[in-house]
Amino acid sequence: MSDNDFINRVMDGLKEQGYLMIPDDFIDQLIITLHANVTTINTMTQIAELETKMLGSLLPTGSRQVDSLKELSKRIAEIAFNVEDVRNEQR
Questions:
Q1: pLDDT tens digits, residue range 16-26?
Q2: Distance between CA atoms of 21 and 11, rounded to whole angstroms?
Q3: Residue 1, pLDDT above cutoff 90
Q4: Can you count the helices (H) and strands (E) in the chain?
Q5: DSSP labels for 43-86?
Q6: Do 18 and 63 touch, CB atoms closer than 8 A?
Q7: Each residue's pLDDT tens digit, 27-41
Q8: In contact, 53 and 65? CB cutoff 8 Å
Q9: Crossing angle of helices 24-55/62-90, nearest 10°?
Q10: Could you give phi then psi for residue 23, rounded to 5 degrees?
């Protein structure tokens, strides 16, 4: 059994027993914060894309920066949706 499988089984067991509960207010604030971060990162991505277009070869790392920001935004959004799923399961 992998570490992730073991952790998931333990977490599921704790949740079933009612030991793993996170206050709704905390989860709601976390979701709001995560989505705000995604919005901010998406704005930063647009700025980086514009800089890359304007400066072209003068900014050799521009496209990597854009790709990195897009990946970060995607991962934070995935975390936000996972947190929403936890909140919905708790209710």
A1: 777 666 777 88
A2: 11
A3: no
A4: 3, 0
A5: HHHHHHHHHHHHHGGG-TTHHHHHHHHHHHHHHHHHHHHHHHHH
A6: no
A7: 889 999 999 999 999
A8: no
A9: 160
A10: -55, 140
